[in-house]
Amino acid sequence: MAKKRRFQDLGFGTALREDQDRLILPNGQFNIYRDNAFFERFQSYQWLVELSWSSFFLVLTTFYLLINTVFALLYLAVGIEQLSTGNPELSHFWQAFFFSVQTLTTVGYGSVSPEGFWANCIAAAGAFVGLLSFALATGLLFARFSKPNLKLRYSKNILIAPYQDGKALMFRIANARQKVLAEAQISLVASWLEENELGQLGRKFSPLSLEREQLRIMPLNWTLVHPLNEDSPIQNLGKSSCSRQKLELIVIFQAHDDSHGIQLRSYHSYSSEEMVWNAQFVPMFQAGRNGQTLLQLSKISDFEYVKL
């Protein structure tokens, strides 16, 4: 008799209300909000490292303009006469602003210089802030470039497709980067609302067996298959019951990144609204040039309807 696989609790608990939404968002983030203080839960370093590149450079640019504006206003507050006049065609604000830029960046063209005591104090503070700012920006850039990043694409939908003499749940994933992913492992967990013996509504979890749960290497896309047979805990769930019981299929992926020598993880989930019945995926790779295989990532979610 085969030994039953032990289920590892996902940590969400079962006492979840019916009006609660999905547990894991499509972007892989947990759908959990913590009501502690903002500054307690907010981590600026992690936020800056995980921002998109466009948002990161927008933050840097905003900070650069803002800090120079602050110092320009300080120069105006102590009196513009404490700065030697540079370009008379510029207004006092812009003279102070560009002098702050030259000070923070340690460029120092020499066209404008501080002459009064307070102007020299502000210039000294500006140089100090500039050194710290560029050191922090350099560290953040290095952290962002060196941070391992798993770019895993998931199909938009999970399909109920023909499989052998019956049907199966199917979704597929693909590595969007050239880096090699080895020892890839994946697990699929179903979660749905169900009444217990006391008539209390709670959330139930159950692991779903997959046709293949491991790959030694992952050069192409990977189609995951869960047969809907007598061993499946969701075999008898139909369209209406999946929606009524808020079925959610949670995906946990991990693989070894050869280039960085570490384990990478990715989380995803499918709700009942993202299930497509009586459909199958279309092929997403074909023969390419020079004997290569062309993997068409744009087709990862493409499917066609079939009769079951």
From TrEMBL:
It is found in: Membrane. It comes from the Bacteria. The keyword Membrane applies. GO terms for cellular component: monoatomic ion channel complex; plasma membrane. One of its GO terms (molecular function) is inward rectifier potassium channel activity. Residues 61-145 form the Potassium channel domain. The chain crosses the membrane at residues 56-78, 90-111, 117-143. Keywords: Ion channel, Ion transport, Membrane, Potassium, Potassium transport, Transmembrane, Transmembrane helix, Transport, Voltage-gated channel. Residues 152-303 form the Inward rectifier potassium channel C-terminal domain. GO terms for biological process: potassium ion import across plasma membrane; regulation of monoatomic ion transmembrane transport. It is a multi-pass membrane protein. PANTHER family: INWARD RECTIFIER POTASSIUM CHANNEL. This is Inward rectifier potassium channel. It comes from Saprospira grandis DSM 2844.
